[in-house]
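User: Need the bound-state model for S-adenosylmethionine:
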Amino acid sequence: MSGKLIIIPTPIGNLDDITLRALEILKTADAILCEDTRHSSKLLKHHGIENKLMPFHQHNEHKALESTLNRINTGDVLALISDAGTPGISDPGFMLVRGAIAADLEVEVLPGPTAHITALVGSGLPSEKYVYLGFPPQKKGRQTFWKSLSEQDFTMVIYESPHRILKALNEAKEVLGIERLGCVARELSKIHETYHRGKLHELAEACEQTPFKGEIVLILEGKAHFEKRQKA
Ligand code: SAM
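Assistant: Bound-state model below.
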């Protein structure tokens, strides 16, 4: 039997947001690589799956790479999951996929949840063309990051922590202007799911009054749509 690496997206909140094919692979794979075995065991338990969970996270990604590729090379089917959403999207996965491709091993990626796509579509901002920017740098390079967005024509999708979202809204407002539209998508697929939609100054004011909590995706209107709105 030939080995394979299978990338499996997992729920971003609601544990039922997982495909039948993903569940079947989680049941039958030789092992499941995950960021946090305790966290992922809850997902397996919820779906009545008993299988081996092995740690694969940003701190051991380099070290575990070779042994993981060796296992696949000798015939093991290994599934990679992360704490939430799609591995490789602001989560470990890229290096393993790249390594497997370089070693001529089979790689399969299942389609499934990722917070930025859900947030983008729910934001109501143009979703035909967008750029995904992950997390802004926390300190060094943060100003340059925001400045680089001023000429961006497409809708921008950003991950931000609840501790820095007010700062991010004020920084975005500074660079893009108070009239630019934005959306803060919080706690998607969870009990407190909320979309805050409006102009950047309205979002910053709302966040200042009642701090936005939980997991957050920030979506910003691109320059092209903004200019079109101004002319209309
Ligand atoms: N791999 C994940 C994905 O595909 O979306 C992203 C992992 S990244 C470490 C975690 C960030 O994703 C959070 O800080 C937040 O910005 C975003 N996120 C994850 N789940 C979310 C949810 N339910 N609602 C809003 N944002 C979420």
